[in-house]
Every structure is written in C-alpha cells, then in structure tokens.
Fold this sequence. Notes:
The complex is a heterodimer. By secondary structure, chain A is an alpha+beta fold. Chain A is built from 6 helices and 5 strands; from the N terminus they run αβββαββαααα. Chain A has helices at about 1-35, 90-105, 135-150, 165, 170-175, 180; strands at about 45-55, 60-70, 75-80, 115-120, 125-135. Chain A has a 5-stranded mixed sheet with strand order 1-2-3-4-5, with helices on one face. In chain A, a hairpin with a 6-residue loop joins β4 (about 115-120) and β5. The longest helix of chain A has about 35 residues, at about 1-35. The N and C termini of chain A lie far apart (about 70 Å). Chain B is mostly helical. Chain B has helices at about 5-10, 15-20, 25-35, 40-60, 75-80, 85-100, 105-125, 130-150, and one strand spanning about 10-15. β2 of chain A pairs parallel with β1 (about 10-15) of chain B, so a sheet runs across the interface.
Amino acid sequence: MMHALWWVGAMAAILVIGLLLGTRKARLKRTEQAWLPVELQHARIEFAERYFYTKRPVRLIAKVDRVYKDERATHFVTELKRRFKTQVYLSDVVELSAQKLAIERGGHRAVAETGFVVIEHPVTQERTPIPVQLLREHEIIALATRYERLIVGGAVPDKANVAGLCRSCAYADRCRPEVLSNTSDPRRTRHAR
Amino acid sequence: MKTGPRQRSVPIRASDLAKMTVCEQKLVYEKRYGERLTRAEARRIRDGNQGHMLYLRQAFLLNPGVRSSETKPWCFIASAVFGEAAAETTVLRALRDSVLRRYTLGRTLMRLYYRLSPSFAIYLTARPRAQGFMRHALKPAVVIVQWLLERPR
Lengths: 193, 153
C-alpha cells in the first residue's frame, strides 16, 4: 500500500514539475515575441553562436550571436549587446556587416540588408532591437584592406582621441600617458563607440 | 588584394574589423603585444559572456534544432547548480551513462529531463539563492547515487 502511494506521489510530483516547466517555456516564448521586431515575428532561430568562414573576397571569420530565418528563406543577423544606453555604434554595424558577408559567401545563404543590434539592459534584462542598415561588400573589403595594412605596419593607425575612452584603455600608459594624469580633461566628452 | 604570407594563414575576425572603428592604435597594440584588459573591461567581458550564454540557452530552448558551433548546454541543472566540471556533476553524468542509458525507462526519463530541464536551468542561472537551495536539495541525492555506483556488485 505504502509502495503504491510512493509511486502515485512521485508521478504527481513529476506532473506538477512538468506543468510548471511547460508554463515557463510558454512564458519565454511570449517574452521573446514581445521584443522581436515585426520582421522577425514569424522567423525562427536558424543559427546561434555559430562560426562562418569565407576565403573570398577576403579571408574572414565571423561568429554570429543569432541568425533568424523568415518564411522567404531570408536570413537576419542579430548581435546582442549589454548596455545601459539604448545606442548603436559604428562598430556594431561593421561587425554585423562582416557577419553578413561571411554567411553569404561562406554559408551560401541570402542575408537581408538590415540587421538588428539587440540592446539588453544589464539590470532590467529588457531587450530592445535596433534595426541597422548593413555596409556593402566593397566597404567591408576596404576595411579589411586597411586592417591588413595596419597589421603589417604599412599604414599609420589612427587614435581614438577621446579622453574618456583612452582613460579606460589598458594601453593608455603607452599611447596617451597624459590622460592618466589629467583626470579633469575638458575633452572628456562622449564615448566614441 | 595582395596579402603577405602571415595574412594568408590567418583570417580576419569580424570583431577585429569592429574594433578598428573604435581605435586603430589599440588594435595594433593588441596584435603586437597581446590583449591587455583593465579591470573594468574584464568585468564587462565577463558580464557579456554570461549574457551570451543565457541568450544561447534560450535559443536552444526556443528551437532545439538550432545550429551552433558551441556544445549544447545539455548538462543543465547540475551544471547550473554545481558547475560544469564539478564532482557532483560528474557523479550525475555517471548515473546517466552507466545506469539510465541501459534501460528503456531510464532513457524515457532522460528524454523527459532533456525536454524540461533547460528552462529550469535558465531560471536557476539568474537566481543565486535558488541555486543555493537546489545545491542543498541535490547533495543527498548525489551522495546516494555515488554510494550506489561505487558499492561492490
């Protein structure tokens, strides 16, 4: 009798836990739908934390955060950023554009001209997708060419020249030591990235 | 485009192109002397990695067929509570591999666990107090499983 009661109790516990977890999954789906942009409402996640590699037009490797695929088999690249400010920087656009190129050339898939930077608030965890127009292929090639010249010492690197950014840089002592001594720099203005 | 032998062997990372738009000098220093981080930068990266891990887990939960270069975070609850490489997680893995996997009922339980536990692991990831509670609740089970696995048969 006791043995049977134990079994009934265990089954009931499994059912309750299953119900609770099922509800949680449904809630996660609803939460996801709430922040997804219109373009991705009916799309599904195709890739997550996945590497793409291409040899041409430049040797490029990119790791995507999430790529969504809509009903017309168009892929949308998204990049997660945890920031207090709901703001997109040029570096985000370049990263997404390079990912687009790697997917198109390396993964042979059609990628939309628009990507999304998903800004996640570090405290509230609220996500805000911001659409960005991605760079064209020739613009990425130009950046890659510049990169290669910089690495081999064939070009003089530009400095950020934003005191706030330089002050928080680990190479400030080598590059701009004056910003470390002068904390009341009037050029401590906007964050450049 | 002409490239030297070094560039031919190393592909450009998308994230490096992004860094270039922030400060080219920093990128050059990183390539020349290795990556150096301030404490604030290291903290930001750690925080970002945690955020990305959760984002990945949610992606697997929303679409279990998603393609990824990362290992599927399938050790869910034990990993979330004890850590990926903890002794307790290893014991529970041993239970799965040497006992549950051998029997039909065990395999059914595993399938059920794999279906339900990711959402619970996500719940635990963001709640240290719940993790502590689960750790205490699971400890006796781990001790019993370890005793059962190690006893002479």
